[in-house]
Structures are given as structure tokens and as C-alpha cells.
Specification:
Layout: E1 3-8, H1 17-29, E2 33-37, H2 54-74, E3 78-83, H3 88-101, E4 106-111, H4 116-121, H5 125-136, E5 140-143, H6 146-154, E6 160-163
Length: 167
């Protein structure tokens, strides 16, 4: 029986680099793993995805509910989720850590975001402390280059970091 990987978003209608990368994982690894998508179709607020506002709070609640239902129903071995900047950062880490709390054996984050270094360097106080605790609770972080691996090592992220080149 194939191990199950919960991954999202994976909808064929979704455009953008995160769904495209997720589809590449599925296409390359579907002979070894069974992939379970986390899809929440976003109809409103697409231009303000990375900001903190009422529409994004609504979508966060909806996505979290769908995510937890998928975790409980499918009981995946591995959960893969993109780690992004801005207000989505804590959301990404919360999803991955929830997966571990609910029984996933591995939580794998994929670092995604061109200015993630600037974002991390500007985190302050409790937000930074909590973020590092959540980051270091993951089993692995996938990054797109040696630069990002070195950056995470420099800021003392203790989780296994693996480079998956974009080339």
C-alpha cells in the first residue's frame, strides 16, 4: 500500500507557482505515493492574498476546517504544505504542526517566497520566538536553492533542510 501524502493546493484550475510545484511533485512521485489534495477554491480577495483582512480570515477558517477534515479522514503519513511570508507564515506553520498533532508521521514544509529572508529578518519579539518553535518542530523543509538552505542555517533553523533545485 502506498504511503499517503496530504498536499495542497493541487487543483488543476489553480495557477501560480505553489500549485504548479505541487503538481510537479505529484507527477514525479505518484508511482510511490498516493496524494490527497487540499483544495479550497478562492472566489474573492485574490488581489490581497498576503494581507491580513476579513476575507483572508474567512478563507483561513475554511481552509483549516478542510485541512483538519482531510487529516482525520485520510490519516496521511506525510503532510506537505508551502511556507510563505507575511500573515500566511504562521498559517503555514500552524497547518504543518496541526498535522503532526493529529497523527501525521512527517510534516514537510516547502519554503516559498522571494523575499522570505527580508520577512524573517524583520520578525520581532514573540512572533519570532513562536515562529522558530513551530519551524523547528517540522521534520523537513524543502528549499529551491543553496542560498535558502544557507539562510535557514544562518538564522538557526534546526530542521533538516533539503535543496530541490528549480532547474
Amino acid at each position: 500500500m502506498k504511503q499517503k501524502i496530504l498536499i495542497g493546493p493541487l487543483n488543476n484550475k489553480d495557477i501560480g507557482s505553489i500549485p504548479t510545484l505541487n503538481r510537479a511533485f505529484v507527477n514525479g512521485l505518484s508511482d510511490k505515493y498516493k496524494f490527497i489534495p487540499i483544495n479550497v477554491v478562492r472566489k474573492y480577495g485574490k488581489s490581497n492574498v498576503s494581507s491580513f483582512n476579513v476575507i483572508n480570515i474567512f478563507y483561513f477558517i475554511k481552509q483549516y476546517f478542510v485541512f483538519v477534515v482531510q487529516l482525520l479522514y485520510h490519516r496521511p503519513t506525510i503532510v506537505h504544505y508551502a511556507i510563505t511570508s507575511n500573515w500566511n507564515f504562521e498559517k503555514s506553520l500552524m497547518f504543518l504542526n496541526t498535522a503532526k498533532l493529529l497523527g501525521a508521521k512527517r510534516a514537510v514544509g516547502h519554503l516559498h517566497g522571494g523575499s522570505f529572508d527580508v520577512f524573517m529578518n524583520n520578525l520581532k519579539g514573540n512572533r519570532k520566538m513562536v515562529s522558530f518553535k513551530l519551524f523547528n518542530n517540522l521534520d523537513a523543509i524543502l528549499v529551491a536553492s543553496d542560498y535558502w538552505k544557507g539562510f535557514l542555517e544562518k538564522i538557526k533553523v534546526d530542521t533538516l533542510v533539503t535543496v530541490v533545485n528549480n532547474q
